[in-house]
Structure formats: structure tokens, C-alpha cells
TrEMBL record:
Belongs to the aldolase class II family. AraD/FucA subfamily. This is L-ribulose-5-phosphate 4-epimerase. The keyword Zinc applies. Gene3D superfamilies: Class II aldolase/adducin N-terminal domain (3.40.225.10). It comes from Bifidobacterium callitrichidarum. It is an enzyme of class 5 (isomerase). Residues 20-200 form the Class II aldolase/adducin N-terminal domain. One of its GO terms (molecular function) is L-ribulose-phosphate 4-epimerase activity. Its cofactor is Zn(2+). It catalyses: L-ribulose 5-phosphate = D-xylulose 5-phosphate. Pfam families: Aldolase_II.
């Protein structure tokens, strides 16, 4: 089994940098009320090797440091780290192997997004910000048991049907989000919870007015290609 010492200085330097990024991004999960206790995890894939950095399993957020982050290969095998990796490691690895443009994955159990997952419902696209960020509804994926790559397979299968969405609500489990790096996936997780909460509130007032797909496509194109700094 390979260890980090088997990789060159460029890879080891990126591992050091990504460990710092992934450790700090777990603080954002707490800031945006996306996790409780030890639930949830962030990972980021390296550019210099087929490796990823992920949160250790069951370690409280206040104890997380860059050195406690675990380095795994894209089959989920530990390459470096004193702790056992997240119980979702196999699923993160599956996503990276099958979605080559994805370099960040986040899983949370945020309250409102998980409520939609518990009822097996897509979050309907009733907000322009949903068109911007998700290109349509936030889809629900199939029920899968934890501990293997089965959840990752469900994430990939669902997002291939909704290629503009960076989020999927795994039924009876919670949201998984993807991005060009871990920060983008954390942003998607925060946005998922925001729209899940707002659409839940809208349902209490009446029927949600869903946006036509043609308008969603225009919103998404503007947001992805024009909005912000380039």
C-alpha cells in the first residue's frame, strides 16, 4: 500500500495546502448551521495525484486540525493520517472517480434540506436564486445504506440526470454537494439549506409558483457566465 512518502515533493506540498483548506472549511459548516456534533464532512481532491483529503470519522469539529485530516487514494485507501477517515470516504472516492471535473465534495445533515430528503421530495425551483445556483429543482437521490460506495453511486446517477445541479438530497439521509473545489461544494451546501428553508416556508403560505425551465436556463447562464468577477 502506498504512503505519502512514495509521492514527490509537488504532491506532498499540495497535500499540506489542501489539508489546511479542508480543515478550515469545516468551520464554515458550523458557521452556516449545516452540522451538529460530528456529523458531516468535507473533502477535496488533489490536482497533482489521484488523492483526496477528507475529515476523520467521529472527531468533533473543535478538535480538527490540518494534521488530523486524512489523505486517501481514489479507492478510499488511507495513504497518510493517524485517524480513520470518514465513514463516507468510499462514496466521496466514487464521486471523484466518476465525475472527473469535481474536486470538492461535502455532506451535511442540515435541517431543512434533510427534511425534504426525509419526504423524498425534490426542492421545487420557485426562486431565481435556485435557477442561478442549481439550474432547476434540487433533486432527490435514492435511498442507500452508509459505509460503502453505494451512496456515491446514487449521487452520481442522480446528478447525471440534473447536470446543472451541484446538490442532491439522498433520500432519508441528507444533502451531498459537489464543486470545482471544496469551497465551492461548501457554498453549494449552504445555498441548498437556504433554499430548502425558504421553499419550506413558502409551502406553509400556499402553493409554490415554479419558474419555467426556459427562464431557469437564462438565469443559470447569466449567473454562471456573467455574474461576479471574471
Amino acid at each position: 500500500m502506498a504512503t505519502l512518502a512514495d509521492y514527490g515533493p509537488e504532491v506532498r506540498a499540495e497535500v499540506k495546502q489542501v489539508r489546511e483548506v479542508v480543515a478550515s472549511l469545516h468551520e464554515q459548516l458550523i458557521k452556516w448551521n449545516l452540522v451538529v456534533w460530528t456529523a458531516g464532512n468535507v473533502s477535496q481532491r488533489l490536482h497533482t495525484a489521484d488523492l483526496m483529503v477528507i475529515k476523520p470519522s467521529g472527531l468533533r469539529y473543535e478538535y480538527l486540525t490540518p494534521s488530523s485530516m486524512v489523505v486517501c487514494d481514489l479507492d478510499g485507501n488511507v495513504v497518510d493520517g493517524a485517524e480513520a477517515p470518514s465513514s463516507d470516504t468510499a462514496s466521496h472516492a466514487y464521486i471523484y472517480r466518476n465525475m472527473p471535473d469535481v474536486y470538492g465534495v461535502v455532506h451535511t445533515h442540515s435541517t431543512y434540506a434533510t427534511a425534504w430528503a426525509a419526504t423524498g421530495q425534490n426542492i421545487p425551483c420557485g426562486l431565481t436564486m435556485m435557477g442561478d445556483e442549481f439550474g432547476g429543482p434540487v433533486p432527490v437521490g435514492p435511498f442507500r445504506l452508509i459505509g460503502s460506495e453505494a451512496i456515491g453511486k446514487g449521487v452520481v446517477e442522480t446528478l447525471k440526470k440534473y447536470p446543472k445541479s451541484p446538490a442532491v438530497l439522498m433520500q432519508n439521509h441528507g444533502p451531498f454537494t459537489i464543486g470545482k473545489d471544496a469551497e465551492a461544494a461548501v457554498k453549494a451546501a449552504a445555498m441548498t439549506e437556504e433554499v430548502a428553508h425558504t421553499m419550506w416556508a413558502a409551502r406553509q403560505l400556499g402553493d409554490i409558483i415554479e419558474i419555467d425551465q426556459a427562464d431557469i436556463d437564462k438565469l443559470n447562464d447569466r449567473y454562471q457566465n456573467v455574474y461576479g468577477q471574471h
